[in-house]
């Protein structure tokens, strides 16, 4: 395999493998937040704020993988 | 009934047929198509005495000018009984203040409000102004080659880094102000360790040895806490930069895949992402500020 092919492969793998975990995490966060909302609709506002916060933490990890892919692809 | 239907049909059909013709012409005309070029470092437009001014810096100036103009327009004729514009902005700021107070409490909420809302507005307007049509289309000639005059400020890694550093220093400043020097004992927790060493020396060996283990653990936890504060800068920076850059690249790629039509959906998505990122940046800052000023359980 020549280096250019390897680089393309690395970009794809970095993005796809790295985004799997955060995708699962965000799904789990949404799942539990909706469950909490269904059981206790009055706490909607606080659940939403906490959900967005925790989603941001989970998403940050995906963004690291994305940045590695971007740097591999364009720099 | 049928006449009305025909009229709507005719005006709408003319619109859609003309758009379809334009699209078809656009697809088949032999225009030279440039491959979209993506530059991660921002390009330098000009320099003041060797100090480079990049296009993202100019974009932040535009953002600041827009925010200033909005602020002056809204507060120019303030009345006790607000007019329509003033009432709208009072309601918006009231909502922000309510959120701030509900997280940080009444005493600190008032102090954190300006920092948090400034970060929110700056990030939000950086993101939204770069979605304006024509924002990235202006180009200037700088000696050797053409560069874009404006570029979304959040897509240059230095802007998120600067905001993250401001947020970090604000957190540490307010932590020190709330607790004094004792704030540092959260990170350098030597107290329990020295106390247990003292116990060993004075003869209480058994409780001293137990305390020694706890002391080492507390010391380690403190160092981890210190480390986590610095990691926040990195995560703030990369989150905003990555989201915004990925958004720009997404729009660029979609424009080149399907011109004109599908990109509207992604513009809507980017508006939403810009709002969410601004919200996350400001709320996280607010939460960290609240954590730093909260009473430690001692």
Could you explain the architecture of this structure?
The complex is a heterodimer of chains A (75) and B (298). By secondary structure, chain A is an all-alpha fold. Chain A is built from 2 helices and no strands. Chain A has one domain (7-74): F1F0 ATP synthase subunit C (F1FO ATP Synthase, Up-down Bundle), CATH 1.20.20. Chain A has helices at residues 3-39, 44-74. Chain A is elongated, with a radius of gyration of 17 Å. Chain B contains 7 helices and 4 strands; from the N terminus they run αββααββαααα. Chain B has helices spanning 2-28, 55-75, 84-129, 158-179, 191-202, 205-257, 263-293; strands at 44-48, 51-54, 139-142, 145-148. The A-B interface holds A 49, 52-53, 56, 59-60, 63-64, 66-67, 70-71, 74-75 and B 38-40, 99, 103, 235, 238-239, 241-243, 245-246, 249, 276, 279-280, 283-284, 287.
Total DSSP helices of chain B: 7
Note the beta-strand portion of chain A: under 5%
Succession of helices and strands of chain A? HH
- Look at the helices and sheets of chain A and give the structural class: mainly alpha
The number of E-state strands of chain B comes to 4
Straight-line distance between termini of chain B? 79 Å
Q: How many domain units of chain A?
A: 1
- Strand ordering within the main sheet of chain B: 1-2
Task: Name the assembly state.
Answer: heterodimer
Order of helices and strands of chain B: HEEHHEEHHHH
* C-alpha termini separation of chain A: 21 Å
Would you identify the regions of chain A where 5 or more consecutive residues have pLDDT less than 50? Answer: none
Round the Cα radius of gyration of chain A to an integer and report it. Answer: 17 Å
Number of helices of chain A: 2
Q: What helical percentage do the residues of chain B reach? A: over 70%
Helical proportion of chain A? over 70%
CATH H-level homologous superfamily name of chain A: F1F0 ATP synthase subunit C
Structural class of chain B: mainly alpha
